[in-house]
Amino acid sequence: xxxxxxxxxxxxxSFVRAVAGRQNASGKLEIIASGKANTIGNILQGEIxxxxxxxxxxxxxxxxxxxxxxxxxxxxxxxxxxxxxxxNVQPYSSTKIRKNPREAVSLQEVYALIDEAKKPIxxxxxxxxxxxPIGFKVDNLPTTLDPVGQIGQKIQADFxxxxxxxxxxxxxxxxxxxxxxxxxxKGNVYFSPIAASTAVLSPEEKEEGVVLVDIGxxxxxxxxxxxxxxxxASILNWGGDRLTEDIRIxxxxxxxxxxxxxxxxxxxxxxxxxxxxxxxxxGIAGRKPTPISVxxxxxxxEERLKELAAKIVAEISKVGxxxxxxxxxxxxxxxxxxxxxxxxxxxxxxxxxRIGVPMVVQNxxxxxxxxxxxxxxxxxxxxxxxxxxxxxxxxxxxxxxTIGDSQKESGKGGNDKPGIKNIFSRVVDVLMGSNEAEGEx
Length: 441
Ligand SMILES: Nc1ncnc2c1ncn2[C@@H]1O[C@H](COP(=O)(O)OP(=O)(O)OP(=O)(O)O)[C@@H](O)[C@H]1O
Ligand SMILES: [Mg+2]
Description:
- The protein is of the alpha/beta class.
- The chain has a domain of 76 residues: Dna Ligase, domain 1 (2-Layer Sandwich).
- It has 12 helices and 19 strands.
- The longest helix is centred in the last third of the chain and has 24 residues.
- The two termini are 21 Å apart.
- The relative contact order is 0.16.
- The protein binds adenosine-5'-triphosphate and magnesium ion.
- Magnesium ion binds next to loops.
């Protein structure tokens, strides 16, 4: 059992969501506090466009949970996320002739290979968020996630490399550092789907093949997993807001009414709606109320979501035959709350589809809404951090996607946790495999 609380900070286009969580006595993740603050207009399509207001929203969300944090002399660490279409996820392969072919492959050798693989990527873009191993191949031996101990002349490593636009990453860091308080400081940044997938996908689903679709307000993140690994990811710069906009135009209503219609009366399957079902929208300044057909509302939503379903199939097809992804599609994010959305995706894609709700224990300070697909990323951030701690190895000279000390305290944090911060980029790589053998890394 681990006692330290970790804070997950999901910075989204509609809300900053903050949760504080820890493992309870039975090893389950317990969320002891949650809070959110609005970011609408200040983060567009996952990218920060107003530094001051985003910083204020982060600070507000943190304030909402800070009352539940015990021990004012304790420093709390946070994990935050980065999203937006500037993020690039690409496969990368590196081969090396081994110096001593008769000696077993060592852990250090594997790390050196990962470091070497990063160099040419870093020359083009130094902002590498993650280097996620897909597999290692020593001579003609089968590809493995754990080559340590194998013998051979040549070793090949395949990775997924996640890079971000350095300026956009810098803006996030700037906001996080500005919003840090005396007790909540020092954090790590993860590619959003890494967090959400940890909260809502099971290891079995990741092994069998699954696609996670996080429908936010300004983005939709599609990430594909196979053999426990992230094998494909892309971020669309539209999400639930596009649906609202379609309703606004299609039904000639205000944006506010379009959002209310979507979230209160929307459905993704129009044939389930009676043709006579009508909602009255109050008229402005004494004008007559306007009748809105609920079936038309559903038709608009269904058409746009069919487009998304086609994109999902296209993403899966980049890495394999869709039908071989036996665990199908899992939906999360606020957009996954639309009634009948799983049925629609299942019908259009012919893949099984379910809604991904984080499975956590809720403490009395946390709100009911943590059991909601829109909390997948915030909760997953806490989980990712914990999994890394569980797999922590002695620190070496790795530069992680870590913020806090370097920007703020010149690396001399008073209450630092030795061996934790400096290993993150490496351990998150290992973590993505969730392979027992990899725990040894
Ligand atoms: N019941 C509902 N039915 C349909 N859509 C909903 C419902 N509830 C919320 N949404 C939509 O979910 C979206 C917000 O999702 P979420 O909170 O996951 O976004 P975000 O994480 O802030 O943004 P992003 O991930 O795009 O940066 C909005 O478009 C909102 O309209
Ligand atoms: Mg989101």
